[in-house]
Design brief:
By secondary structure, this protein is α+β, with helices and mostly antiparallel strands. Helices cover 26% and strands 20% of the residues. It contains 12 helices and 16 strands. Strands 2-1-9-8-7-6-5-4-3 form a 9-stranded antiparallel beta sheet. The longest helix has 23 residues, at 2-24. The N and C termini lie far apart (77 Å).
C-alpha cells in the first residue's frame, strides 16, 4: 500500500514537472545573434517598410484575387472543385496611421477599415457574393509584413544565408514575433542588399495565444518589384493550403493576388464624377470630302469606341496601347491571317487590346477586339488563339457594335468602381450564336483550317472544367466563351477535337493561368514572358486553367528609362518591363522550348498577304 502511494505521488510530480516544462517550451526556435552588418541591414529594412507604406498611401492600385478550392486526386494530385474571384481598387490613404486606428489592435485590423466598403461594394456590383467564407481583406493584407509594429522591439531576426532572386542579391532572415499576438508575421524575409528593401516574404500570420494558426490565416508567399527608382511595391501573392479539414472533407486551396495600376490617376471621391482624359487623339478629318450617312454612322460608332477604350484604360482595366507589344506582334497579325483570305475589307483597321483581368472573356468595342489576359494565358497555340479572334472578328463584320450612347462623353463620368455596372459590352445570345457560326467559316477559309481539331481541344477543356470553375468563366465586361448551359459557343470545334486524355502527354488542351503575359504593375502595359516552357513529364504537369505558384526573377529598375527623350523624328524603343528576368540558362539536362507565343514571329512583308505563323508544341 505504501509503495502504491509513493508511486502515485511520484507519477503526479512527474506529470506536474512535465506540464511545467511543456509550458516553458518556446513556440519559436532560438534566434541567432546577428553580426553588426546583419543587424544594420535589418534596421535598414525596418526604415524602408515605413517608406513603402507612405508610397502605397499615395496610390490606389487594383487588387485582384482568384481562388481555387481543391480536393486530392489520385492521378492529378489535386483538382479544382470550386473557385471565387474578387477585384477592387484599394485606397489606403485614409487608413494608415489614422489616429482612430492606431495603435493596431491585436484583435482587429483597423488599418483596412477605409477600404472595406470599397471592396464589398465592388464585389456586390460584380455579383460576386457567394457562399464562400473568404474575406477579401485577408488576401489584401498579405502585401504587408506588419504596418504598425515591424521592428526589433516586436520581432526576432535570425540570419539564414545570402541568395539571388533573379539578378538582385538578397540576405535571407527568419523572423518571428517576440510576444505572441493576433496577426504577427511568422516566416522568412528576403532583403535586397543595397537599400534594405524587403523584396519577398514567405510565411503566415500568428493566431491568438496557442491556437492553431491555420484556423485564422493562410500561408502565403508575397513578392515586391522595383517599379521606379528607389521604389519597391507589392506585385503578387501566392496562397496555398494543401490540406484543410472542413467537416469530414479534406480540401485544399490555391490562390493568386495581383496588384497593378500604381501610376493611375487618383479618382475624385468628393463627387460622383471623374474627369476623362483622351490621350493620343488622332485627327481623322478629311476636308476634301463630305460625310455620307453610312460614313457618319461609322464615325459615330468610332467615337463611342474611343470614349469607352480610353475610360477603361483610365480605370486600369485595359492595357494601354503598346506599339511593338503582344497586341500588335501576335494578336493583330492573327487578325490579318483571318481577314485577308476571307476578303474582309474594314473601313478602319481592326486592332486587339488586352483586358487585364484573369477571368476568361472576350468582346468587341467598335473595331477593337478585347481579349482578357486570363484567356490569352490559357490558350496553348496559335490556332486556339485564332479561334477566339475569329468569333470576335465576326461580331465586327456582322455589325454587332457597342451601344452608341457612349459617344456622349458625359455617360462615362462615373467612379472607377462603377465601371462594370455602367458600361455594357455584352453581346446577346443570338449575336454570339451568329458570330460563332460565321467565325468557324472564317477559320475554314484561313491558314488554320487543318488545325481545327487542335483548336477544338481548348474549347472542350474549357467546357469540361467550366463546370467547377464558374467564377473564372463569369465575364466582368465582355462575353463568356461558354453558353449558359456550359457548352462552348464554338461547339463544332469542340466536337471535331480528339477525346481529352490526361495520359497523352503530347496533348496540351489548355495552359495554366499566367503562361504567356505579365502586367507591368506601374504603367499597366502587358509584356510577353521570357520564361521557357517545359514539356510535361506526367499528367500532373498539365494543370489546365489552374492557379500555379508565383516566382519572379527580380531586377533593379533600369535607369536608362529616364534618359532624355529622342530627337524629333525618331522613335524611342519600348522600355523593358521592370521584372525582366535575368538571363539564366536552365539546367542543360532539361528539355525546354522558348515561351514565344505562336505567330509572334509572323511579320508580314505585304499586308495584303496572310503570313504563316509558327506553332511548335513542347517537345519531350
Amino acid at each position: 500500500m505504501m509503495f502504491r502511494k509513493i508511486s502515485l505521488t511520484f507519477l503526479m510530480i512527474t506529470l506536474v514537472v512535465s506540464c511545467a516544462y511543456a509550458k516553458k517550451q518556446p513556440k519559436y526556435e532560438q534566434a541567432h545573434q546577428l553580426t553588426p552588418e546583419q543587424a544594420a541591414l535589418v534596421q535598414k529594412a525596418i526604415g524602408r517598410e515605413k517608406v513603402l507604406i507612405k508610397n502605397i498611401q499615395q496610390r490606389t492600385p487594383l487588387v485582384e484575387t482568384y481562388i481555387q478550392n481543391t480536393r486530392p486526386d489520385v492521378k492529378l494530385y489535386q483538382v479544382p472543385v470550386e473557385d471565387e474571384y474578387m477585384l477592387s481598387r484599394i485606397d489606403f490613404g485614409k487608413g494608415f496611421f489614422d489616429k482612430a486606428y492606431l495603435p493596431r489592435s491585436e484583435a482587429k485590423h483597423g488599418i483596412f477599415k477605409g477600404s472595406f466598403s470599397a471592396i464589398t461594394n465592388l464585389t456586390k456590383l460584380l455579383k460576386l457574393d457567394t457562399h464562400f467564407a473568404y474575406n477579401p481583406l485577408g488576401f489584401t493584407e498579405m502585401m504587408f509584413l506588419d504596418p504598425s509594429s515591424f521592428d526589433t522591439q516586436h520581432y526576432e531576426f535570425s540570419f539564414v544565408r545570402r541568395e539571388f532572386l533573379g539578378s538582385v542579391r538578397t540576405w535571407v532572415y527568419d523572423v518571428h514575433p517576440k510576444v505572441n499576438g493576433m496577426g504577427r508575421f511568422y516566416g522568412r524575409v528576403w532583403i535586397e542588399d543595397q537599400d534594405g528593401n524587403v523584396v519577398r516574404f514567405n510565411g503566415t500570420f500568428t493566431a491568438p495565444r496557442s491556437e492553431d494558426d491555420s484556423r485564422y490565416y493562410f500561408h502565403f508567399d508575397s513578392w515586391r518589384m522595383n517599379v521606379q527608382p528607389g521604389i519597391w511595391l507589392p506585385v503578387g501573392v501566392y496562397v496555398e493550403e494543401t490540406e484543410r479539414i472542413e467537416g469530414e472533407k479534406s480540401v485544399g486551396l490555391k490562390a493568386q493576388t495581383h496588384f497593378w495600376g500604381y501610376a493611375l490617376k487618383l479618382p475624385t471621391r468628393e463627387s460622383e464624377n471623374v474627369s476623362v482624359k483622351v490621350d493620343d487623339a488622332v485627327d481623322r478629318s478629311d476636308d476634301s470630302q463630305d460625310m455620307g450617312p453610312l460614313q457618319a454612322t461609322r464615325a459615330w460608332i468610332t467615337q463611342a469606341e474611343n470614349n469607352v477604350i480610353d475610360r477603361l484604360v483610365e480605370a486600369g482595366l485595359v492595357a494601354p496601347a503598346n506599339a511593338g507589344g503582344y497586341e500588335t506582334t501576335v494578336l493583330d497579325q492573327i487578325v490579318i491571317n483571318l481577314a485577308v483570305p476571307n476578303n474582309l475589307a474594314f473601313t478602319d483597321p481592326v486592332h486587339c487590346r488586352v483586358l487585364l483581368t484573369t477571368t476568361i472573356e472576350a468582346t468587341t468595342v467598335g473595331n477593337t477586339i478585347l481579349i482578357s489576359k486570363g484567356l490569352i494565358d490559357t490558350l496553348p497555340n496559335e490556332e486556339s488563339i485564332a479561334s477566339v479572334v475569329a468569333m470576335e472578328l465576326a461580331h465586327i463584320a456582322l455589325g454587332h457594335h457597342i451601344d452608341t450612347r457612349y459617344a456622349f462623353n458625359d455617360r462615362l463620368l462615373f467612379p472607377d468602381e462603377s465601371t462594370f455596372q455602367r458600361i455594357n459590352m455584352y453581346h446577346s445570345d443570338s449575336d454570339n450564336a451568329e458570330a460563332a457560326k460565321k467565325g468557324q467559316e472564317y477559320l475554314q477559309a484561313s491558314m488554320y483550317k487543318d488545325k481545327m481539331p487542335s483548336a477544338g481541344l481548348y474549347w472542350a477543356q474549357l467546357a469540361e472544367r467550366g463546370r467547377v470553375m464558374k467564377s473564372l468563366n463569369t465575364p466582368k465586361l465582355g462575353d463568356s466563351l461558354l453558353r449558359s448551359d456550359g457548352t462552348p459557343w464554338m461547339g463544332e470545334l469542340a466536337h471535331s477535337a480528339p477525346k481529352l486524355s490526361w495520359d497523352d502527354l503530347a496533348q496540351i488542351p489548355a495552359l495554366p493561368l499566367g503562361s504567356w503575359l505579365k502586367t507591368d504593375p506601374w504603367d499597366d502595359k502587358v509584356h510577353m514572358l521570357t520564361a521557357k516552357r517545359y514539356a510535361p513529364m506526367n499528367a500532373r504537369d498539365k494543370m489546365p486553367l489552374e492557379v500555379a505558384p508565383l516566382f519572379f526573377k527580380l531586377q533593379r529598375y533600369d535607369t536608362s528609362k529616364l534618359a532624355a527623350p529622342p530627337a524629333p523624328g525618331t522613335t524611342a524603343p519600348p522600355p523593358a518591363p521592370a521584372d525582366q528576368p535575368a538571363t539564366t540558362a536552365p539546367p542543360s539536362t532539361t528539355v525546354d522550348q522558348p515561351a514565344t507565343p505562336p505567330a509572334a514571329q509572323a511579320t508580314p512583308s505585304d499586308s495584303s498577304q496572310p503570313t504563316t505563323g509558327t506553332s511548335n508544341p513542347p517537345q519531350q
